[in-house]
């Protein structure tokens, strides 16, 4: 098993495999507070994963725990390679051979330390974050099949009724609302159209229904 960071044609193999690798996964949520109903959580998909591990760059090559000698670098040189990865604005690829880990990442954190009694060795902790291409889909106002056109319209469209000859508000209320006594509800919504006399409705008038 080997741990590799690949930046284009440059491959950096960690000389000593870490004892443990932590991969953090979580799901994103947006919490919305609605008056009178409290809080609601809406799932937003998987969050970006973080990969963390610790190891060291040995000063002296030891085949009992080091990778192939061709990957061995002076600790200061190796640390400088990681520093360059840290400031890079381009994603790299992180690969753990023999596993399913082969993902584009950014190196977002690098901590190094020296220990007494081990001169020349450099210990380090790294944090990688998986990278996703943030492509924004252009949506034309009249595009067929666009996300905008497929969005559910939460606005209720008002129902209307066109007055016919011989109609009255009580007759309309009977047939449309199932109760002739609800004529006053229709009148309240359409006072500007009907006027001051609820008995004087005219054919062709469009009345908004409750």
From TrEMBL:
- Looking at the record, the residues that make up the LysM domain are 159-209
Q: Which SUPFAM superfamilies match?
A: LysM domain (SSF54106)
Q: Which Pfam families match?
A: LysM
- InterPro entries, from UniProt? Bact_Kbp, LysM, LysM_dom_sf
Q: Which CDD domains match?
A: LysM
Q: What is this protein called?
A: LysM peptidoglycan-binding domain-containing protein
């Amino acid at each position: 098993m080997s741990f590799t960071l690949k930046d284009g044609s440059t491959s950096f193999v960690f000389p000593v495999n870490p004892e443990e690798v932590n991969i953090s996964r979580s799901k994103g949520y947006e919490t919305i507070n609605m008056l009178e109903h409290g809080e609601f959580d809406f799932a937003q998909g998987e969050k970006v994963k973080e990969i963390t591990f610790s190891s060291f760059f040995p000063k002296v090559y030891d085949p009992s725990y080091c990778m192939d000698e061709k990957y061995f670098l002076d600790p200061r040189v190796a640390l400088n390679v990681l520093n360059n990865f840290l400031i890079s604005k381009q994603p790299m690829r992180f690969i753990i051979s023999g596993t399913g880990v082969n993902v584009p990442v950014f190196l977002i954190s690098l901590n190094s330390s020296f220990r007494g009694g081990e001169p020349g060795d450099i210990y380090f902790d790294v944090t990688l974050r998986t990278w996703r291409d943030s492509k924004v889909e252009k949506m034309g106002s009249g595009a067929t099949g666009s996300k905008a056109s497929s969005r559910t319209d939460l606005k209720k469209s008002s129902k209307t009724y066109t007055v016919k000859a011989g109609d009255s508000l009580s007759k309309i209320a009977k047939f449309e609302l199932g109760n002739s006594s609800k004529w006053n509800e229709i009148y309240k919504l359409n006072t500007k159209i009907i006027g001051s006399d609820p008995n004087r409705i005219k054919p062709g008038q469009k009345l908004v229904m409750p």
